[in-house]
Write a structure and sequence with these properties.
This protein is an all-alpha fold. Helix content is 54%, strand content 0%. It is globular.
Length: 54
C-alpha cells in the first residue's frame, strides 16, 4: 500500500526516517495538499507500516 500510494510522487523512505508522530503529520500534510487520497483503511495500513508496529 505504501509503495502504491506514496512512491508515485517521491522516492521510498525507510520507516525509521521519522517517528510515528512525524509520519502522521506527513500524511496529514499530503492529504491536506490533495497530493494523495487515502481511505481510512489505507491510511491505517500505511501508518502501521511506517510506524513499524510501534
Amino acid at each position: 500500500m505504501y509503495l502504491a500510494k506514496c512512491t508515485a510522487c517521491h522516492s521510498e523512505y525507510a520507516p525509521s526516517t521519522y517517528t510515528p508522530e512525524q509520519w502522521q503529520t506527513a500524511l496529514d500534510e499530503m492529504e491536506k495538499l490533495k497530493r494523495v487520497h487515502l481511505s481510512p483503511e489505507e491510511r491505517a495500513l500505511i501508518l502501521s507500516y511506517l510506524s513499524g508496529g510501534r
